[in-house]
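Batch manifest, entry 17 of 40.
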Amino acid sequence: MIQGLHHITAITGNIRKSIRFYTEILGLSLVKRTINFDNPNIWHFYFGNQTGSSGTIITFFYQPGLPRGQAGVGSTKVTGFSVSETSLEFWRKRLREYQVEFRGPFSRFGEEYLVLFDFDGLELELVASAADDRQGESTPGISAANCIKGLHHVEVTCSNAQKTNAYFMNSLGHTMFKEENGRFRLYSGSAMPGNFVDIVSRPTLPLHRSGIGTVHHIALATENHDTLKQLREKISKSCNQISVIHDRHYFKSIYFKDASGLKLEIATLDPGFLIDEPIEKLGQNLMLPPWLEADREKIAEVLPSID
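Output type: structure tokens
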């Protein structure tokens, strides 16, 4: 019932720099400009392909002044993006041009990848994958042949990989793909980029500390409200801190944590980001769900400036 990654949500302290990094440098589209529905004082920005398809999205809570976080046990340490197998030299040149530090290429599971960090210090990877059959979209300076196709994987840091593997496999229905040097790659749906979760045990690291430059949570994808309800019932048998089903306007979702403290979300594929604005307007204006529209002026007044 889980069909890969839906989105990754992280925390930024400078949204102007984040917009520049993810749109101008990496070539993603800003597909939604909204708020944290649980805290309307916080901006929430979504980046992905031109329509905001599930499995292409990285989102950011904009919280200026928040202390810098630390990825550790119980965190998503790395977010991997998928590019074509022949594009790493293009990305090496582009990252140098924009003075973005990177390392690599390295090799893992038969694929080469680069390691880089965004302007908040969030760790990313660009993975050259021959298996990714998703169609690319050209953006200024980046051809469809070289562009980011979507998410590739996330790396989960835990204190006990066997225990975390068992949770993902037994409670969430993931399947073991491969193991390499203590890294366990699991998948949901099909064994394709965008569906991978890498489990790595690093028990000597400190516990994750949320803050700027860290991932807030991983969102996994499920088809619709009915499959979400079924998953909630199944997961609640092994987790007593699972949330009710939340209406996030663009999807419905639940939240819970695994034994290591990793925060997870499962989100529906429908209705998507075109529900309240046409594709040519995506990401240009502050969008609010219907139940907050009456408070638009009040919310706009308290949101931090992004100009």
